[in-house]
Amino acid sequence: MPPLRRHQLLCLNALGWADLAGQVEAGLPDTVLQLWRSRRLPLVLCRQPLAGPHARLCAGLPLPTRWARRRCAVQVPREGIAYFAEFPTTLQVLPGVPVAHRDSLVRLSQQLAMAGLRAQVYGSFGWQALTGLAYVREGSDLDLWVGVAHAAEADLASRCLQQCDAAGETGLRLDGELVFPHGDAVSWREWLRFRAGGSRSLLVKALHGARLCHEVPQPEPELCCA
Fold first, then answer.
1. I need a surface site. Which of 35, 43, 146, 184 has the fewest CB within 10 A?
2. What residue stretches are annotated with the Phosphoribosyl-dephospho-CoA transferase MdcG N-terminal domain (predicted)?
């Protein structure tokens, strides 16, 4: 199985769903559990505590508008995971994006693709595309992450994101992260400021927490799913 990383989607097997049913009292409405299981909808991997290789995984289930957009936290046994998946790409979420902003997102996707990159959309737009349920509301940001191999790719991706963000006049704001190998992630807006000399440090988010870096992020030790 691949190394664990924030923003990974977890798709459960029968054991995983049965285990999750025991966590209803922890704040997960039974009606939500029935809906998620019947439609085989995913959970998302969250920040993990430092623990052994066989520890249960912390996962999240952000609820749609129907349940006041609550965020439910659960724990999943590793043997309860059928497979991992990814959030949809920018092109896959287009039907749920304001019409006036779609052309700029298509250009963004094309520009990133020319460099061998792509943006995955999480947050409200990502969950709405995944589930078909209502998550997006007026003022929702378009949250996305782009996997980059090194600083030069991070520079290119953040410039593409900046151009797309500036091109939109609909009030749709692009937010999100650049994700380096092994899962270290930085805000693309903070990366631009850092590279332009506007800040001396970067907040780096990783699987086990966050830290300040004064240079290009160095990887955390890998945590693989056993």
1. 35
2. 5-86
